[in-house]
């Protein structure tokens, strides 16, 4: 990831122009030692620097090669100015201050500081004749090196902090995006489970009411009332699925399963007590029971359904749902796929076998929740 450049961020542009005030040190020389050459030269240097500075802070394309050239131009402008105007050392500082925001590697930045310092020292050796127009005193050399290293090193820390903040911000944005995708997938799974089950019940009861309309009008009216009740329940569950599924408990789900299977002429038996589960486990098992019952009603042509809660040898808590239907070929649709994803999200396992009926096996790992008995459906 490219490092963030605080100087070119739009929200910091106005403040960045205030940094231009440090270039005022260029005018100390012509003010203290006024001359035509000093003033004209300083104004030309200042104008060139302002243009470079403006191009730099208005760069929107995050084009690093251009920024390298701009920083290099500032440093070269400083080298051209320093021998006749000690305030030119300010340009060295600008170059050192910008570098950490363009180069992410701290060793590389420090090596550039070292090279810059060598050039400044070289000018001190070359232009070392007191009284000459082009004269660089050693005090000016040491001050220039001290400032470029001090401010540059400070900006290394600041740039690293900005990079960390940028990475955190990007990670947060990515998490939000992933959460949105996960939420869409959850809603899709829940809507499938909710509507797939309830619509199957509605169709089943509507068909039954149609057959009973002439034979037993009172029973037909009861079935139609159940259709209305189921439809209202489905509407409520869809709203819950959109806002986040809220399970009403495995006991209630098993009772609803009994009624649904009874309407389809299937007898449900439960051979063991329902355990006490945490909220996540109970929600997964509720939706699994709902999907399994829907598939039995739709496809199994079964007469009996058996549910059992057991504990496997490796400590996994197991729910077995078996029917005596005649399905031979099983294809995993959206419902089973969603069920498998939910089980796996808890570290569990799901398997389906058909011999001769269908057996759905859901295994959940041991949790901190005690496996006390909550109730029994032996009387169902």
From TrEMBL:
Residues 251-332 form the Histidine kinase/HSP90-like ATPase domain. Residues 183-249 form the Signal transduction histidine kinase subgroup 3 dimerisation and phosphoacceptor domain. GO terms for molecular function: phosphorelay sensor kinase activity; protein dimerization activity. It holds the Pfam family HATPase_c_2. Keywords: Kinase, Membrane, Transferase, Transmembrane, Transmembrane helix, Two-component regulatory system. InterPro entries: HATPase_C_sf (IPR036890), HATPase_dom (IPR003594), Sensor_HK_TwoCompSys (IPR050482), Sig_transdc_His_kin_sub3_dim/P (IPR011712). One of its GO terms (cellular component) is membrane. The chain crosses the membrane at residues 15-32, 37-57, 69-97, 109-127, 133-159. It comes from the Bacteria. SUPFAM superfamilies: ATPase domain of HSP90 chaperone/DNA topoisomerase II/histidine kinase. CDD domains: HATPase_UhpB-NarQ-NarX-like. This is Sensor histidine kinase. It comes from Tunturiibacter psychrotolerans.
